Fold this protein.
Amino acid sequence: MSTQHVVTLTCQDRPGIVHAVTAGLLQVGANVVENAQFTDHDTGTFCMRTVVSTPDVESVAVHAAVAGALRPGAADPGARLRVRPLQRRPRVLILVSRHDHCLVDLLYRWRGGMLPIDICAIVSNHPDARPLAEGDGIEFHHLPVTKDTKAAQEQQILELVDSHAVDLVVLARYMQILSDRLCAQLSGRAINIHHSFLPGFKGARPYHQAHERGVKLIGATAHFVTADLDEGPIIEQDVARVSHTHTAEQLVELGQDTERLVLARAVRAYAEDRVFLVGHKTVVFP
């Protein structure tokens, strides 16, 4: 009997990293079945994602073996090593308002086994999505919000994140601006879908700005949530082409299709440990 694990590593680049990782994996009898690596030369950051098969070895043992092999010669306090059993799917909390097209798409893909996640709850500031949640047996929380109740409402969201051991919060067209406090609490584990081309680069050297932000494509944008509104590191983008023949209603339809696709890709990439945060941008392995 064998067990599969996803091993991810982010650290400062140096000679011998791949050798050390594979040597550590060999100690626990692991067989590499998938591997991707990349060095961001702007920051000197090395990113590696490896899927391994082991003879029924616990993830903690895999982690210890790889960490031990990396330790000699390593002087990188910012290094991040993670080992996840492949069968342990990320737990997801979805936030939504009245526009439910992204929610419907995520539920469809989850139901059909196309999204390797566990949706533990859906939260909305409106009651409209309750039938969708309850139809799939998912816990639904109607948490209305006003200017005066925003802090208390966000505290309820955080309590749900903690009580359900949530790995990822997905803003599936949640039409509320999160406070700086909530953004900080969810840093690196909250994804938003924006119905526009992000970011818009102004001033000099726009292509250099785009490179620094890791722009993928121009179109609907899925990005990590930060306190800087709609300025978070970009995970996924796509484009919908239109012409003078399209009506406003057709543009809405095309835009919503793009949002659905982009958000689903971003959530899947995160769920499969393919997304690495490197400064203000991301490395996303295919």
